Amino acid sequence: MHRSQFSARERRQRSRLAQVVHAARFLRGTLTVRNVRCGKPGCHCARGELHACLYLVRRHGGKLRQMFVPRQWEERVRQAVENQQEMEKLIEELSDGEWKRLQERKE
Ligand SMILES: [Zn+2]
User: Fold this and answer.
1) Residue 52 lies in a domain
2) Distance from Cα 70 to the centre of ligand 1, integer Å
3) Given phi > 0 = left and psi -120 to 50 = alpha, else beta, which region is 29?
4) Strand order in the sheet with 63-69
5) Distance in Å, CA 30 to ligand 1 centroid
6) Cα 33 to ligand 1 centroid, rounded to whole Å
7) Distance 47 CA to ligand 1 centre (A)
8) How far is the CA of 55 from the centre of ligand 1 (A)?
9) Distant-in-sequence, close-in-space partners of 74: CB < 8 Å, separation ≥ 6
10) Domain that holds residue 96
11) What pLDDT digit, counting tens, does each position of 43-98 carry?
12) Gap from CA of 76 to ligand 1 centroid (Å)
């Protein structure tokens, strides 16, 4: 299939997808805040003032996995998660376009 057969919209979606794949981080998962106790005796969390900690959660091989995300990594991880979501949306839209072409028996 020749590239120029795609609509302008589809070409934009494909080039955005390629841009993320080539140059950006992407990560499948969900960021969630958990209030936790660190376990150190004498820490304020032992008296009930819990630490708000960021975790990355993902399902992998049928199991739920989670990873603590340090504050200084938050922005990087958040961006990677957003990029993944954007890519999934683009792939879904491109797949819909191909579905329609097939349905209409277009080349
Ligand atoms: Zn603590």
Assistant:
1) yes
2) 15
3) left
4) 30-36, 51-60, 63-69
5) 24
6) 15
7) 9
8) 16
9) 54
10) 13-103
11) 999 999 999 999 999 999 999 999 999 999 999 999 999 999 999 999 999 999 99
12) 25
Query: Which tokens belong to 48?
Result: 């009930």
Residue corresponding to tokens 């304020």: 44
Q: How far apart are CA 20 and CA 78, in angstroms?
A: 15
- Asked if residue 3 belongs to a domain, the reply is no
Find the 49 Cα to ligand 1 centroid distance in Å.
8
The Å distance, Cα 29 to ligand 1 centre, comes to 26
Amino acid identity at 9: R
Q: Who wins on pLDDT, 19 or 5?
A: 19
Overall number of domains in the chain: 1
31 is a domain residue: yes
Task: Examine residue 25 and state whether it is found in any structural domain, yes or no.
Answer: yes
The whole-angstrom distance between residue 101's C-alpha and the CA centroid of its chain comes to: 28
Q: How far is the CA of 34 from the centre of ligand 1 (A)?
A: 13
